[in-house]
Amino acid sequence: MTDGARSVNGTRNAAREGGPGKGEKLADWADGRLGLYALAKANMRKVFPDHWSFMLGEICLYSFLILILTGIYLTLFFEPSGAEVVYGGSYAPLNGIVMTKAYESTLHISFDVRGGLLIRQIHHWAALVFVAGMLIHMMRVFFTGAFRKPREVNWVFGWTLLFLGIITGLTGYSLPDDLLSGTGIRFADGAILSIPIVGTYLSMFLFGGEFPGHDIISRLFPVHVLLLPGIMLGLVVAHLILVFYHKHTQYPGPGRDQKSVVGMPFLPVYMAKAGGFFFLTFGVLAMIGGIASINPVWAFGPYRPDLVTTGAQPDWYLGFSEGLIRVMPGWEINAWGHTLELGVLIPFSLFPLIMLAIGVYPFVEAWVTRDKREHHILDRPRNAPVRTGLGVAWLSLYGVLLIGGGNDIVATHLHLSINVITWFVRISVFVVPVLAFVVTKRICLGLQRRDRDKVLHGRETGTIKRLPDGEYVEVHEPLAQAQLHTLTQHEQNPPYEIGPREDAGGVRRPVTVSQRVRAQLARVMYGPESHIPKPTREEYQELTSGDHHH
């Protein structure tokens, strides 16, 4: 050892003998007041399972963070004002045109602010990915039954985030005040006016007078950049806290049960993967924002109430409500000098009702099953065919109404009659979800039968064997214990039944309407026609005791 090394080591030893360093003192000070060490020790090594579908929630989170970052940048240059000015900026085709300051500042961001157009497009693409990620993530939770106790509250948080995300997208989509977004605001105003009695007053209040007014942009701006993002940020934090507290759900497999989790520790493995995935998400959105144009407001021009752009379409997540209104017959009721516009009011009411049905489903299922246990193991969608069928039926309804919301685009691109498309959607709204439910349920039952056969007869090897009597059979290989567990771990509890209407003494028991409804739903959702019985231990041992795999 050299003298220099001895000197360095001597200094270090002297520092240790002289007491803790500044960093250690700071850590001790913080821990004495905040209890950080005990908190970190208890949670930083928490185990999280690993599966590709769990990344859907991370995409939502990272898209939301990117929305906040890019939104802050855009806020620095956007002017939320409905005051009119004459444009004289860099985009020559619009010079001399009267427009609002909101639209002028949007053009300024797009053409004059360094990186402004890129940030605008990243922001818009991130909004689309955010809502899409939430929808797909919720469908994953729905199909696998991850909403069951103790996660019902977290399901409500996620459902609220989806609903607020759609509304936030509508408000942000409307801020540039171009011809396309102005058409969307006019659409929303028509829906508000259809509300009986108070619709006119609500419209006057929101717009500051007769449409289009001069106050709507300045009022949407704080709602879009402060109110809704603040509520959503609080819900995201609460959602993540509950995920951390309840522990993450996991797919069935060996070593996994309601009390143990198989996966990787939160720190450092999960944190490293999450950090890398954030930058991957940011990079993909930046690449899309740089090469794929979206919402070119300069091509539409400023909004004018007497004009509408050809092919005006909202973002995809609003196509559901647009399709409802476009395909609804123009029914109206005129009585006592008032008009009730059913052609707008009914679709306008159906959209939140359908969303509400999604939000309350976990509580309906819990009421039907009366299952009070905690569930940390996910269902395989095939083992819950009725629930899976309902989810696919809802998605098919969404797809049909999305076609209705773009019936003019479909008509022009496919050279079809818009009336034919409208009637197709009107009929499909009632037919397609039913067909989707029936087909999905049959597919799930077929997959259950295949699982049963695999458990009893094993895996096909492709090897052909000739028996002594001349018959040719394919050799089957028994499944591994891990795969057998995965295919047979799910429960098949008998559904709720009312039971005998009379007791042993011949006295008729009172049966409430609630009990009848619950029994009927339980029979439909969990009755004999909704599942294929799992192979019993006796059946498996009987078939595997001899040479039954050949």
UniProtKB/TrEMBL annotation:
SUPFAM superfamilies: Transmembrane di-heme cytochromes. Residues 531-550 have a biased composition (Basic and acidic residues). GO terms for cellular component: plasma membrane. Its main location: membrane. It is found in: Cell membrane. It is a multi-pass membrane protein. Coiled coil: none annotated. Keywords: Cell membrane, Electron transport, Heme, Iron, Membrane, Metal-binding, Respiratory chain, Translocase, Transmembrane, Transmembrane helix, Transport. Pfam families: Cytochrom_B_N_2. InterPro entries: Cyt_b/b6_N (IPR005797), Cytb/b6-like_sf (IPR027387), Di-haem_cyt_TM (IPR016174). It comes from the Bacteria. GO terms for biological process: respiratory electron transport chain. GO terms for molecular function: metal ion binding; oxidoreductase activity; quinol-cytochrome-c reductase activity. Its EC number is 7.1.1.8. The chain crosses the membrane at residues 54-78, 124-143, 155-175, 187-209, 221-245, 266-294, 344-364, 384-404, 416-440. Its cofactor is heme. It catalyses: a quinol + 2 Fe(III)-[cytochrome c](out) = a quinone + 2 Fe(II)-[cytochrome c](out) + 2 H(+)(out). This is Cytochrome bc1 complex cytochrome b subunit. The lineage of its organism: Bacteria, Bacillati, Actinomycetota, Actinomycetes, Kitasatosporales. The gene is qcrB.
